[in-house]
Amino acid sequence: MHSLAFRALDRHVVDGRADDPALVTAEGSWSFAQLLHESASLAGGLRELGVVAGTPLDIAVTVERPRVVSVLAVVRLGAEPDSGARYRIGGEPLTVTTPDESFDYDLVLRAGRVDPATALARDAEGYADRLLERYGDLLEPLIAGRALT
Fold first, then answer.
1. What residues contact 120, with CB distance under 8 A and at least 6 apart?
2. Residues in contact with 76: Cβ distance below 8 Å, sequence separation at least 6, in sequence order
3. 15-65 tens-digit pLDDT
4. Distance (Å, rounded) from C-alpha 87 to C-alpha 123?
5. How far is CA 66 from the centre of its chain?
6. pTM of this prediction?
7. Which residue in 23, 64, 101, 130 has the fewest CB atoms around it within 10 Å?
8. 81 Cβ partners below 8 Å, 6+ apart?
């Protein structure tokens, strides 16, 4: 079985649904391809800051679009959501905090565009179940090919 990240986004792009809506907010609509690009870019930036599979990371984002992108980036890397983690995405303005320093969220996103992260081939044992339990409201519609609204 493919990884959770692949099933949520990449699969739809590969299957010819790249331009179908994946995220609809008051700010507008993003296609599966756009959401894939943004989440892969953020994941690439996070990877450059040391986030890899299994890294605990706190996602404390309330604004819908960055929350969706952040969760999908974490899933893409196989990182573990953890509210007490030393790596954190959150705050106002939105920042990415590592154990050593903080960076503007948009800067990390732009940095990741140089080398976006690909989806893992397979998830670690139990990973998909843990993430679906925590973020099922976001992941399940995408897996089913429905837009988040």
1. 3, 5, 6, 53, 76, 77, 78
2. 5, 39, 40, 43, 117, 118, 119, 120
3. 999 999 999 999 999 999 999 999 999 999 999 999 999 999 999 999 999
4. 21
5. 9
6. 0.97
7. 101
8. 56, 57, 58, 59, 71, 74, 131, 134, 135
